[in-house]
Design brief:
EC number: 2.3.1.30
Protein name: Serine acetyltransferase
Shape: globular
Order of helices and strands: HHHHEEEEEEEEEEEEEEE
Catalytic activity: L-serine + acetyl-CoA = O-acetyl-L-serine + CoA
Structural class: alpha/beta
Helix content: 25-40%
Keywords: Acyltransferase, Amino-acid biosynthesis, Repeat, Transferase
Pathway: Amino-acid biosynthesis; L-cysteine biosynthesis; L-cysteine from L-serine: step 1/2
């Protein structure tokens, strides 16, 4: 948890100290309770894990299923309204803003929630639904509804989410010439 808090301190310009991050950031507290609930669920204490998860959701406003798999240094900023489903997988160094849902589209056997790869950024109120993969270092814009896979290092926005085309770089050639002629008065 200290590693996560240090990561948040580096990524959030509003954070003033490690103590502030540990005591006041709901994302840190939600991940703390999630880690305990995940341990309990892994050891088949599903009822206790579920109760702990519900307590954490009530206190923080962040609902994380104990069966989800979450990596290191995940930053849930503000957090209110974040929902992470049971078969969701979130790799290391992911940033998730408030109101994000990692949800299912239909009840099926096996994996039914998104897989978010390392370093991805998920904007506020984005909805990632189904067995999709969000590529490494990708960005999902605020309010986007993502129903298809997102490639690595890609930005998607809108409803339904679509890739933002990168504009070609504009190159302007500027030539500076110096006037070497001298005039006599």
């Amino acid at each position: 948890m200290f590693q996560t808090a240090r990561s948040v301190l580096k990524r959030d310009p509003a954070a003033h100290s490690l103590l502030e991050v540990l005591l006041t950031y709901p994302g840190i507290r939600a991940l703390f309770w999630y880690r305990i609930a995940h341990f309990l669920a892994f050891h088949r204490f599903y009822t206790i894990a579920g109760l702990l998860s519900q307590h954490a959701a009530k206190v923080t406003g962040i609902s994380i299923s104990p069966e989800a798999k979450i990596g290191k240094r995940v930053f849930i900023d503000h957090g209110i309204g974040v929902v992470i489903g049971a078969t969701a997988v979130i790799e290391d160094d992911v940033t998730i803003l408030h109101g994000v849902t990692l949800g299912a589209r239909r009840a099926v056997e096996g994996r039914r929630h998104p897989y978010v790869k390392k370093g991805a950024f998920i904007g506020a109120n984005a909805q990632l639904l189904g067995t999709i993969t969000i590529g490494a270092f990708s960005k999902v814009g605020a309010g986007a509804i993502v129903l298809n896979n997102v490639a690595d290092k890609t930005t998607v926005v809108g409803n339904p989410a679509r890739t933002v085309n990168k504009l070609p770089a504009k190159v302007i050639n500027v030539t500076f010439t110096t006037n070497t002629s001298t005039t006599k008065n």
